[in-house]
Amino acid sequence: MNLLKDLPAMDHMRSEQMTLVQLIIPVESAHGAISYLGDLGLLEFKDLNADKSPFQRTFVNQVKRCGEMSRKLRFFSDQISKAGLSSSSTPSGMQREMDLEELEIQLAEHEIELLEMNANSEKLSRTYNELLEFKFVLQKAGGFLVSAQSHVIAQEQELDENVYSTEDYVEDMSLLEQELKQAPSKQSGLRFISGIICSTKITRFERILFRATRGNMLFNQAPLDEYVIDPSSNEKVKRTVFVVFFSGEQAKSKVLKICEAFGANCYPVPEEINKQRQITREVLSRLSEFEATLDAGIRHRNKALTSIGYHLKEWTLLVKKEKAVYDTLNMLNFDVTKKCLVGEGWCPLFAKAQIQEVLQRATMDSNSQVGTIFQVMDAEESPPTYFRTNRFTHAFQEIVDAYGVARYQEANPGVYTVITFPFLFAVMFGDWGHGICLLLGSLILIIREKRLGSQKLGNFMEMAFGGRYVILLMALFSIYCGLIYNEFFSVPFHIFGHSAYRCRDLTCSDASRMGLIKYRGPYPFGVDPSWRGSRSELPFLNSLKMKMSILLGVVQMNLGIILSYFNGKFFGSSIDIRYQFVPQMIFLNSLFGYLALLIIIKWCTGSQADLYHVMIYMFLSPMDDLGENQLFWGQRPLQILLLLMAIVAVPWMLFPKPLILRKLHTERFQGRTYGILGTSELDFDSEPDSARSVRQHEDFNFSEVFVHQMIHSIEFVLGSVSNTASYLRLWALSLAHSELSTVFYEKVLVLSWGFDSIVIRIIGLGVFAFATAFILLMMESLSAFLHALRLHWVEFQNKFYQGDGHKFKPFSFAALANEED
């Protein structure tokens, strides 16, 4: 125990030390002080007005103003996007300082100008589209009317030649026939209505007209060859020109009502050809005028939008900052004199000097006569957890935080995850050919990180880009493990020298049936390539990877228990060290640490002992002779001793801690009832600002503590078995990845390459590339990633990690740049 006490406390592997501070800021310098603190980004404010609604706070009007300006900026952004323009930021040297009032006036002017231009453009566009429809109606409907008139004229000529020209008919003709002959255009009450309608409605429109007029109508239609913008909806649709011939005023009113119901636009078309041509010329002239006017309006509007887009990002960031400042000011309280704002917050211990410096700068800039008071306070609640990370370690810390944020000053598993996570991934994914593919992908993301970091990526690409350094380490470790497994897309190579085995004959015909013979020293690094295709390949690799998985699992679980010792030492909990750390180490290593020792001894000695038999009969018949399964002298008494230690460790974990806690609680509160007869200023247990007093004042329930300890002990005992077995997933996934790669190589690539046809070879190569990219590189890597994640979250972190803290969220302007509204 003295040796363990001399170990360092691992302070550099814990979260930053935090302190609760109080700020008393004069009103005139409050805005500048909060702005400077936002630039610094190292102070998390506490909301002192949590009981008030947002509309009851002091700076609610300023927040509303910022919200209104944000709405205008979003309106400008939408207009720029609709116009197909891009918003470019102003160069840093040309940016001009602008206050909120000036920006508010400028935004209001730009909005009024844009709204007027949009209204004028909308009116002109509607008129232009109506004229365009009128032109199409004149073209199509005029053709109907000309053909109808020519048909009537032909009939009249036939009547004149055959009937009216005879003298007998002229003498016997009635007065009505004489009048109709003189005015043939008035011989019937035939009328027509022309217009344009959406092509999808034309069938129903015709059917309704037919029923409404009882069939007393003639319907002509002509679909347009191009899409036309509908003036009402401002959308491009397929349109059809129609002409309805009918008789009578009643039918006219019905037709007009039906046209209105179907959204058809009716346009007057004269019967005479000369008038049609005159109106067509006028429409074409007005269309050309409107086109010129619309083009000029679009150019003027785009020029205004370009000017706005030049400053849009700058204005948006300014408004976001101002809104964030006023939201933070709403978290502060006025003091009694109403001249100062009082705020509280958490900051790292190293940031105190920087915060005091920016507060002094804000006081000088505002010419305030009174400086800001900065003082440290005692805290009752647990401080937030803050780890300083960079772009390399951030993704690994996020992997840990996804399980749960570390308790304040708790040992951070993210430090070890940087190495252990990609290594365990590589144990399952070991293939240096696939590792090179992952390496190239990660290098592309890292080389282009500046460009990709400023773009809006999709969900998958954003996840891959955020974990680019995780992928980089996974690729490097995959190459390393692939060299150990000697697999390049499942193909072994003689990279580090010649094989230690050779065939029994020159033809090697019995290599897969009879096996190989060893004729020299072992292969220098990794698996000997001659194992590939031999009779004992699968049993050898199974045994190797399974034992290696158990060794890695025992080492990582021991690391987790050792970290629990450092936690107990740091928090001064000797009970946790003596009655959790020590029995857990004894139990785990008496069983599975001993198994790992047997594996190493068997590898070193080349013994043929059956380790399954040794471990099973260690429990069933510990007194029996081991026989040929004995690996070293004194193995049987050692097994008996380890078994007894494991049995003793279980009650050691279960009983002492609850009993000692009850004893401490009883001693602490003995005589507490007599303490209320007098007062003592030195009663430290009753200080409200002591974090320890909060736990001491809680009711101690021995049964609850005992049940909790019992659950924890049973979970550890059963978990030691299940967690060790869980590490066998390293063996299973590694074997599955290797065999799947072998299947794709032999049954797709090699098989297709056996044909003389170039087409079959290309198809085989394409299938192999597709299977490698989408199955082995994507699906298999995702599977190995998830299994490595589970091993860290469950098997490793549950040995020491509480994960019930809350993250440090400072007031920072840096986070606003990437934040969406």
From TrEMBL:
Transmembrane segment boundaries: 423-447, 468-485, 548-566, 586-603, 638-655, 758-779
Gene Ontology biological process terms in this record: vacuolar acidification
A GO molecular-function descriptor: ATPase binding
Record keyword Phosphoprotein present: no
Keywords: Coiled coil, Hydrogen ion transport, Ion transport, Membrane, Transmembrane, Transmembrane helix, Transport
Localization per Swiss-Prot or TrEMBL: Membrane
Coiled coil, from the record: 98-127
Membrane topology of the entry: Multi-pass membrane protein
Free-text function comment from the UniProt entry: Essential component of the vacuolar proton pump (V-ATPase), a multimeric enzyme that catalyzes the translocation of protons across the membranes. Required for assembly and activity of the V-ATPase.
Family of this protein: Belongs to the V-ATPase 116 kDa subunit family.
Protein name (Swiss-Prot/TrEMBL): V-type proton ATPase subunit a
